[in-house]
Structures are given as C-alpha cells and as structure tokens.
Amino acid sequence: MAKIVGVVTTDRNGVAGGAPIFFAKSREDLEKVAHMLEKVLDCGAHQVHEDLFIIVDRH
User: Fold this and answer.
1) How many of the other CB atoms lie within 10 Å of CB of 10?
2) pLDDT digits (tens, 9 = 90+) for 26-56
3) CA gap 39, 45 in Å, rounded
4) Which Pfam families match (predicted)?
5) Per-residue pLDDT for 17 more than 90?
C-alpha cells in the first residue's frame, strides 16, 4: 500500500495535513527538493501540479 510521506510546495496557503510539508522558494527549488527527498527516502516524487509534489513510499 502506498503512503504519502511528504509534500513539497511553493504555496504556503495551499496545503495542510498529516505529512511533513517542505516549502520551496521557487519552482526550480521545488523540483530540486522533491528529487532530493525522492533519493534520500527511497520513494517516488510525483508532481500533482506546477506548485506541488508529493513524496510516496510504496514499500
């Protein structure tokens, strides 16, 4: 079963919830942070829209 383990966004007002939220300064930073978390956590980074990635653990 997949589990959302993190959210990366540039929109401070557009997210809330139980997973850790990482705020990026720009869209370029958003992609860098999402892909770094993907590697470090051995998870998948999925872009939901231009200002939001979710980090998903499928293990």
Assistant:
1) 18
2) 999 999 999 999 999 999 999 999 999 999 9
3) 9
4) YIEGIA_cap
5) no
Strands 44-49 and 3-9: unpaired
The residues spanned by each domain of the chain are 3-57
- The Cα 49–Cα 51 span in angstroms is 6
The structure tokens listed for 9 are: 């966004």
Alpha-carbon distances of 37 from 9, 16, 20, rounded to whole Å: 13, 19, 12
Q: pTM to 2 decimals?
A: 0.90
In single-letter form, the type of residue at position 18 comes to: G
Element (H, E) at 36: helix 27-41
Structure tokens that stand for 44 in this block: 């998948």
The pLDDT, as a whole number, for residue 59 is: 84
